[in-house]
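To the wet lab folks,

You asked to see what we're planning to order before we commit. Fair enough. Below is the target structure as tokens, and below that is the sequence we designed to fit it. If anything looks off to you, flag it before the synthesis order goes out.
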């Protein structure tokens, strides 16, 4: 199983950082509103793997190769909108030129990070935000997998299980 970004309660990864940035009001777009970011909620990933194991048993085969991601693949804008809705906040979509943000991130890294300032503005993370991550799940569609979670209800479920991740 090759998943996109796996997210969920207490994961402390990319999606948790995105939630934190949106809620705290320091997330900005860099002309990347429609950049696709394949992701999968941890519960959906578990459901998917159990579903595939049952298919293997029923159809008497022992090897599967599949990508695991939400269908359709959400854009950065979709993540932003779903986070705002689930968190019950309103944020304006601010666009700042990518090269300007990247320059500022390098400045922070070299001059302020030795003092523990600005770790959220890592140039590597900024570069990742403008690149699409297209992990398509055609196998799941072809074999009629029924998704339990879309982006919004995955976030709602996550928030109900661990509200501290949403503060």
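Sequence we intend to order:
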């Amino acid at each position: 199983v090759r998943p996109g970004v796996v997210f969920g309660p207490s994961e402390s990864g990319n999606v948790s950082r995105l939630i934190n940035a949106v809620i705290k009001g320091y997330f900005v777009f860099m002309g990347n509103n429609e950049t696709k970011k394949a992701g999968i909620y941890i519960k959906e990933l578990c459901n998917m793997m159990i579903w595939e194991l049952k298919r293997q048993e029923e159809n008497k085969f022992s090897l599967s190769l599949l990508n695991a991601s939400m269908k359709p693949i959400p854009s950065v804008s979709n993540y932003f909108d779903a986070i705002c809705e689930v968190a019950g906040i309103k944020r304006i979509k601010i666009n700042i030129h990518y090269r300007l943000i990247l320059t500022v991130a390098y400045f922070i890294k070299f001059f302020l990070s030795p003092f523990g300032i600005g770790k959220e503005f890592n140039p590597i993370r900024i570069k990742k935000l403008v690149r699409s991550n297209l992990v398509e799940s055609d196998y799941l569609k072809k074999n009629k997998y029924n998704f339990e979670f879309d982006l919004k209800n995955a976030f709602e479920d996550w928030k109900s299980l661990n509200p501290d991740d949403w503060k």
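Structural context that might help your review: The radius of gyration is 18 Å. The beta strands are 2-3, 5-7, 39-41, 67-68.

Thanks,
Computational group
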